[in-house]
Task: structure prediction
Amino acid sequence: MPDPGQARHESYVVKLPSPKPEYPALPWTCAGAAMINVYFEVLKGVLLDRLPPEFNRTSPSYCRLFVIDHPNSPAGPFREATLTLGCRLSMMPAAFVAASMTENPKALAAGLFERGYPMGLGTIDLELGKTSARVSIKDAKGPLITVVLPSLQTIEPGRLAYDHVDAIKTSADGKTELLVTSPDMEIDQAAICKNARIEYPDDLRDTPWHILRNHNVVSAQVARGTRTFSAGRQLGT
Result:
């Protein structure tokens, strides 16, 4: 039997800024975007503790971490790092947002109000070369996670496809609703890495970035193309 998630929606309620910050209306079409995407195995228990009951875990249990650089957007340049739980929704593959980070206050506000991502402000240092890539993510308290792709091999863009990403949105009255965002990367160039690694600081903290700790990197890719940063839609619509 599938294992349903055990997290209550209330655990994903966020305190929304008041008044609501201004940001360009979604969707944002972001040409020239570049993404590092990594799948890695995690412990079953820690994933179920953070997965809402609408979802079932996969076997093995895994997370997806993607970092996207947007050099062009209606809100200006921004980077976004999102940690998701691999899962199934109505028996179809999906990913549920456990944590997200950006450097851009307008992207932060749009993520909170339109997408339901439990975002925070931080620093995302990204190095993307022709043969290697590296990204380090930090918050106000220090380093969170580093992903290293030491060797890249070019592949056909059509070999990569990504599942929809879901999140729990906090409404103005404090209630919650489940939002679904469609796959949003139109890929022009792609590469894979077979020896990617994930590194953590010595001082691990009580944060999803550390609790959902890597136990085995499954796959890693770099994709380039146009990303559509769109609002989520309610489940079933």
